[in-house]
Amino acid sequence: MFISNHATDTCNPGIMATGAINVVRGTKSSDEELFQIYSHSESIALVVDSPQFFNRLAESFISRINARFIVLLWGDKSSLNSKAVMDIPVYDYNDITELGRENRNALCYSSELFEQGQQGVFEAIGPEDVATLIYTSGTGGTPKGVMLTHRNLLHQINNLWDIVPAVPGDRFLSMLPPWHAYERSTEYFIFTHGIQQVYTTVKHLKADLQHHQPHYIISVPLVYETLYSSIQRQISASPPARKTVALALIKISLLFMEAKKIYESYQTVLSSHHSFSTCSIIYGQESSLLFCGLCIIWQRC
């Protein structure tokens, strides 16, 4: 089980690359919810991102699980609650990378294999092997888990480009938590194609839009609805002249996009095979796509 709010980019794919199954969750989850997910998923180890969060879990969570080992990504192991880790091996990020290097060398340069004229290889991971367990938010009750295979995750990487033809140099702006299913799928797509990713929050969204000028934005419908309502309130509170100009420009923009769509013969495509949608908007001189956790709605700028 991997608990983190920001440190998933390296560790999350690393766990899956070993053939292990990971269960990612954010640090804002309650201790009881984390315990339920750990137990239900039959996890055998724990990865946490900081000593502060580990110590928060020391009594209510870690003392109740039977972990074979614990991995601390950032910070000093000496800062951990000593009672909680008395009988559990703890590794930090450097320990893990060094163990990986040693195991790789031992396999590749095994004298026994060399004498037999063989080359060491890692056990292959099949496309139908389970890669991760993703749990729902739990807003409707106890979080429910879904098993996703490596083929499931690769489907997004292999097919999303047909809808989002992003290229190296493009920028994605993301505001979803790292354990979110849609965020994870998009991250894998981004890293595979050498695209830049910028993380933001609802609080800093406005400033980051202006500063980074993203080509694509990743979020869920509720965020866009909140953003739209905020813009409408600002327009309504503006002086009559500014309000008239703003509404006129919005109307012209909508008419232009509709006319362009007809002219270029692009049609809206609805699909039930993916779990996201895109909606076209324009910031300054660069066109952007908004991604939502629904069906696909493709509109070319």
Structure, explained:
- The structure is a single chain.
- The protein has helices at residues 8-17, 31-40, 51-57, 93-108, 111-115, 150-159, 181-192, 205-212, 221-236, 240-263; strands at residues 2-3, 22-25, 45-48, 69-72, 90-92, 130-135, 145-149, 171-174, 196-199, 216-218, 270-271, 277-283, 286-292, 296-297.
- By secondary structure, the chain is of the alpha/beta class.
- It has two domains: 2-148, Rossmann fold, CATH 3.40.50.980; 163-297, no CATH class.
- It has a seven-stranded mixed beta sheet, sandwiched between helices. It has a five-stranded mixed beta sheet with strand order 9-8-10-13-12, with helices on both faces. Strands 11-14 form a two-stranded antiparallel sheet.
- α6 (150-159) packs across α7.
- The longest helix is centred in the last third of the chain and has 24 residues, at 240-263.
- The chain starts with a strand and ends with a strand.
- Residues 267-287 and 293-301 have low confidence and may be disordered.
